[in-house]
Design brief:
Structural class: alpha+beta
Order of helices and strands: EEEHHEEEHHHEEEEEHEEE
Number of helices: 6
Distance between the termini: 86 Å
Number of domains: 3
Number of strands: 14
Helix content: 10-25%
Radius of gyration: 47 Å
Strand order of the largest sheet: 7-10-11-14-13-12
Shape: elongated
Bound molecules: zinc ion
Length: 374
Amino acid sequence: MDNKLVMGYWDCPICGTKEIRGDVVNCPSCGRARGEVKFYVKGYNEGTLLREDELKQYEQLDAKKAEEMGDRPDWYCSFCNSLNSDKAEVCSNCGATRADSEANYFEMLKKKQEREAAELAAQPQAASGPQKKSRSPLAVALVILLAIVAIFAWMNSSKTASDLKVTSLQWARVINIEENRMYSESGWSLPAGAEQTDARREIQGYNQVLDHYEDVEVERSRQVYDHDEYTLVDNGNGTFSTVAQPVYRTEYYTVTESRPVYVPVPYYGTRYYYNIWRWSPSRDVTASGTDHNAEWPAFELAENEREGQHREEYRFTVEHTEKKEPAATYRIAESDWMNINVGDTLIITSRRTGADPYIADDKGNRIADIQQVR
Ligand SMILES: [Zn+2]
Ligand SMILES: [Zn+2]
């Protein structure tokens, strides 16, 4: 389809008369020559794509009218600010020559838009909307930072109880006794010190081996040209051109592809079966008390036993003398525990993050780390 011309319309900026045909150069109401106007097509939003059948609802110019109006932009008279046909060499409004004017319709429109933008920027800011949006990123960052600092300060804040009396001490010491035992095991190698009882060829794993190729149908897609759609583009002289744009559709098709097919093929290794002696935890011997005389428990070893890991734990229990809160028990290092006696008054500080509490002196300084026993 050829570039057919469509009739444009304009509104008179002086008297406000609407929808004046593009082939009319003087306002039928006030008689002024058209100057700073923006052409449009009735019922069409600039940029919208139209199908061929939708084009019919817009007023298309016949060949004679199209020839008469053409598609060249009007020139803009610098002296009287009116628009003149590209075919005219002299301003129909004031008689000035085209050679003395430098702008056409599009340049006029561009300058007009720039002027309006500049006027908008120069206006004092409206009290409502736009001001809120323009809060500086620095201020936002500062607010976030302050919020983070506040949260950390709260999490680090601590509560201190100073009405605590020690009501009991506890200690416990545990020695684990290990036993030398024989285990029957198997593996792909024989560990040092093992007594082999058997060795067999067994499947150790599988390799994926290419067996054959097979044909598979694979769906593909491609974009193919379908039809043209049209936009109406301002020629700047009261006409609009229909500009074609290709529209594509997705076409699906299948291709045959050759794909490898793999099969799992086992590979074999020697699996060793053996007996092996290992030391393993067997039993605990424990000593405990409620005084300061902590000691390791006495024990006797059987022939196949040895001394294993040692564990020890020291605790104290405190009760509130003023607040009605339950008694609490804490774990503490032995050296600190030796300095605590039943009847002592303690200051214990705990933090909201759940970090370990500590014993403080009356100035709030940390004396000893402790962990609460739940
Ligand atoms: Zn008018
Ligand atoms: Zn003029």
